[in-house]
Amino acid sequence: MKIASALTKPKGIRNIAEGSIGGPIQKGKLFFFTTGRGRSNAWAGPDLFSVRPRISLGRFQQKKLGAQILDSKGNQILVPTTDGGSVALRQGMIFDPSRGNQDGTGSSVFSSGGRLNVIPVSRP
Fold first, then answer.
1. Which of 17, 50, 107, 123 is deepest in the core (most CB within 10 A)?
2. Is the pTM of this model over 0.90?
């Protein structure tokens, strides 16, 4: 197996196919028309992507929260907040990576002024 260095660009192939077809069904009265497009990608090398975060400092993100996550018995799971409180665990919560353990236990969900998923502007 050949490993690409950081200076070499992996080979990438992108194929795009487009087509359209049309014609009369009944001359002068009825016709058909259809179009299609397809794309395939093939990359030789690791798939590394940079994803631009959709959060911004001090911006209210609570509307992004999903359903509650319950334990195996159907009970709420409480998680600490950076404000010092605790809230029920929900999908889409943003946790502070500087708090807690490396395995994720003890992490706190970002909050500011009681609003969840808000990264305080004062945070370095």
1. 107
2. no
10-residue mean pLDDT series, the chain (124 residues) = 53 85 87 88 63 51 75 91 90 85 83 82 69
Count of the separate structural domains present in the chain: 1
User: How far from 45 is each of 11, 27, 81, CA to CA, in Å?
Assistant: 7, 53, 40
DSSP state string for 28-55: TTEEEEEEEEEEEEEE-S--------S-
Q: Which domain holds residue 16?
A: 12-43
Between strands 78-80 and 86-88, the pairing is: antiparallel
CB count within 10 Å of CB 86 equals 12
**DSSP category for residue 27:** T
